[in-house]
Specification:
CATH superfamily of the largest domain: Formyl transferase, N-terminal domain
Mean pLDDT: 94
Structural class: alpha+beta
Strand content: 25-35%
CATH topology of the largest domain: Rossmann fold
Number of strands: 16
Number of helices: 8
Shape: elongated
Distance between the termini: 64 Å
């Protein structure tokens, strides 16, 4: 006979990646008693205030939303304890949690992490995996401990990475895979049937937060590495390079353009129609989408129609 015990859950998340997990919990037998999300921040050119995706979804579902400025604030810790939560669930909350938050729920706090731990602990696991040219990634449900993403693992699911896929493609899919797996684990915790596996510290790698400087292209790299950088940094902060003193954001490239070239790295070897091909340290890379700084993104055909970019011109770091 299946134990249909229902857990009282506090959910912690902020961006779009976390919404499928919140939705899955709302559709489960468990009860989300509150949502904890990051304080509102001004965004965009106009620095307007917008609700983050998790906050908007929680409000639409009528779930109480908590947005403390300080997680260690005694008044907040007291209000968290008053919820009498059985389990805390984290999906991309966006900040380190103090022990007073981690240990507040009766069964502790677990996390939906977008990598196959212990690889790619940290803030940008999907992006860093693609930049590194990984062919496989996944989601791990882990118990949160004081050390960053170092807690024991409860379950994982794998997913292959296609050679043309970007971080957007992979992260969107992982969000749904992780949501389904999380509900299975919540059910198992309610029934007392979940085993925990320690991580292998010797195999741990880290995925630090992205910065704009990560997008600088070194054309002496192999074409495949640059292609991975371009798709790994989409939709932010994007890969970039300079041509005739102007900064260009490289939105998309093609693995099928990784042909051989004897030209100096960064040299444009084709520039006609819908083909803009650049020599690298090993092979040549075909660009598909490009964005002059301050302008809209455009196809290579549209870009070449409005920019005099001759064969032999050279991109620089």
């Amino acid at each position: 006979m299946v134990n249909a015990a229902s857990l009282r859950i506090v959910f912690l998340g902020t961006p779009a990646f976390a919404v499928p997990t919140l939705d899955a919990l709302l559709g489960s037998r468990h009860r989300v008693v509150a949502v904890l999300t990051r304080p509102d921040r001004p965004r965009g050119r106009g620095q307007r205030m917008f609700d983050a995706p998790v906050k908007a979804r929680a409000a639409a579902a009528g779930i109480p939303v908590l947005q403390p400025d300080r997680l260690r604030d005694p008044a907040f810790v007291e209000s968290l304890a008053a919820l009498r939560a059985d389990l805390g669930v984290v999906a991309a909350y966006g900040a380190m949690l103090p022990e007073s938050v981690i240990g507040a729920p009766r069964l502790g706090t677990i996390n939906v992490h977008a990598s196959l731990l212990p690889r790619y602990r940290g803030a940008a696991p999907v992006h860093r995996a693609i930049i590194a040219g990984e062919r496989e990634t996944g989601v791990t449900i882990m118990r949160i401990v004081k050390r960053l993403d170092a807690g024991p693992m409860l379950a994982s699911v794998t997913r292959s990475i296609g050679r043309e896929e970007t971080s957007v493609d992979v992260e969107r899919d992982l969000a749904h895979l992780g949501a389904a797996l999380l509900v299975e684990i919540a059910d198992g915790l309610a029934e007392g049937s979940v085993a925990e596996t320690p991580q292998d510290e010797d195999a741990a790698t880290y995925a630090p937060r992205l910065t704009k400087d990560d997008g600088a292209i070194d054309w002496s790299w192999p074409a495949a590495r640059i292609h991975d950088l371009i798709r790994g940094l989409h939709p932010w902060p994007h890969a970039f390079s300079f041509l005739d003193g102007r900064r260009f954001i490289l939105i998309a490239s093609a693995a099928d353009g990784l042909t051989a070239s004897s030209d100096a790295p960064g040299t444009i070897v084709e520039s006609e129609g819908d083909r803009l091909v650049v020599a690298t340290g090993n092979g040549a890379l075909r660009l598909l989408q490009i964005q002059p700084e301050g302008k809209r993104s455009m196809s290579v055909r549209d870009f070449l129609a409005g920019h005099r970019t001759a064969r032999g011109a050279r991109f620089s770091p």
